[in-house]
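Need the bound structure for uridine-5'-diphosphate, inputs here:
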Amino acid sequence: MENKKGSLLYEGKAKKVFAVENDDSLVWLEFKDSLTAYNAQKKAEMEEKGTINLKIATFIFEYLKSNAVESHWLKTFGERDMVCKKVEIIPLEVVVRNTLAGSTAKKFAIEEGTPLKAPLVEFYYKKDELNDPFISDDQILALNICKEQQTLDQLKKEALRVNVLLKDLFAKAKIDLIDFKLEFGRTPEGDIILSDEISPDSCRLWDVNSQEKMDKDRFRRDLGGVIEAYKEVLRRLLEV
Ligand code: UDP
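Answer from helper R.:
Posting the output first, comments after.
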């Protein structure tokens, strides 16, 4: 049966979440043209951003699926919409870093672009009012955000598996995967699966040769050419 968009459940910074008529186990995501940074203190509308990110996120979810990584993604419709399994989002941003950049480069006063000895997985607590602070494993357990260390180990393992696959994919597109953020959710059956989106909004992507930024840092840092860079990421992925 054809899915029909239901009522608006929630409007986020980059997507609107709708119910799916007659199917409680699904949600309908609509990708917006909004770009936000620094916890939405900086905002802009950029034509085509939603459409390009939908295409990139779809490509990546399909690629991960073909490599046995389960996610909430089920299908993509037209220019802006995807239907996903409904999950309960775990309020953690799971960040994987291959190369030092952004907040962690700043924190340790080490130059951006410094390679890390091994990929690093970090958790941040998803709470806008607090600017998503770093949170340790022990803090996550003590605050009962997750009940068991085993769950955190599973999140780290899955994030590192996604990292290996994405690093390889982007390398074929002549792009260095510097770092990225993942979110996970729980299905009604209790399985933990990859959720949200993976796109240049949530990754740092540098051209292999020029080391030019091809991601949201172009917006954060007023470098210009945001949409052109996102389009180039999509073009190269489709050529892989
Ligand atoms: N990131 C994200 N959403 C956030 C915070 C970070 O998608 O709310 C991504 C960001 O684009 C980068 C990675 O996670 O690819 C690591 O970001 P970092 O912790 O360095 O924070 P930032 O410098 O972006 O504040």
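Comments: The chain has six helices and 13 strands. The first strand starts at residue 5 and ends at 11.
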